[in-house]
């Protein structure tokens, strides 16, 4: 492939199969976002998820008026995907769930969305 200047460059992409930890993490993060927006459409959600055998961790910055049980969302999402036994690497009922969510810092809020001071473009 060549870019606009005629130089060559390498294009790569990643694809993962069903059951891959990245798929689980994406679905958990999406479920957290959905839960926040369901109760508070003005939620600001910067949520990440990581997983390893027997453990799921949700972390990031969330500013919302929603009352969200993050551990319950993690377990329900894992169970819905089919992670119901240690034989498949994760049991939704017994896995360790770590939650480290903080409110979005005012500096980031100001820079990203103006914390109410910016108008829609």
Features:
121 residues; alpha+beta; 3-stranded mixed beta sheet; two-stranded antiparallel ribbon; 5 strands
If you had to describe this structure to a student in words, what would you say it looks like?
This protein has 121 residues and is an alpha+beta fold. β3 and β4 form a beta hairpin. The two termini are 35 Å apart.
Largest sheet: 3 strands, mixed
Mean pLDDT: 86
- Number of helices, where a helix is a run of at least 4 consecutive DSSP H or I residues: 3
Number of DSSP strand runs: 5
What general form does the structure show? flat
CA radius of gyration is 18 Å
Q: How widely separated are the two ends?
A: 35 Å
Q: What does the oligomeric state look like here?
A: single chain
Uncertain parts: none
Q: Strand order of the main beta sheet, please?
A: 1-2-5
SS-based structural class? alpha+beta
SSE ordering: HEEHEEEH
Q: Roughly what fraction of the amino acids lie in strands?
A: 15-25%
Report the helical percentage: 25-40%
Furnish the topology, listing elements before pairings.
Elements: H1 21-39, E1 44-52, E2 55-63, H2 70-81, E3 84-85, E4 90-91, E5 96-102, H3 106-113
Parallel strand pairs: 2-5
Antiparallel strand pairs: 1-2, 3-4
Q: Could you give a short description of this structure?
A:
Helices cover 32% and strands 24% of the residues.
């Amino acid at each position: 492939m060549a870019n606009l200047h005629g130089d060559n460059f390498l294009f790569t992409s990643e694809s993962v199969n069903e059951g891959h930890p990245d798929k689980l993490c994406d679905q958990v993060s999406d479920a957290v976002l959905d839960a926040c927006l369901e109760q508070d459409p003005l939620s600001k959600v910067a949520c990440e998820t990581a997983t390893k055998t027997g453990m799921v961790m949700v972390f990031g910055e969330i500013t919302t008026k929603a009352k969200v049980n993050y551990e319950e969302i993690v377990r329900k999402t894992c169970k819905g995907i089919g992670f119901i036994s240690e034989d498949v690497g994760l049991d939704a009922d017994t896995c360790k769930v770590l939650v480290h969510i903080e409110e979005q810092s005012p500096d980031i809020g100001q820079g990203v969305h103006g914390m109410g001071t910016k108008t829609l473009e």
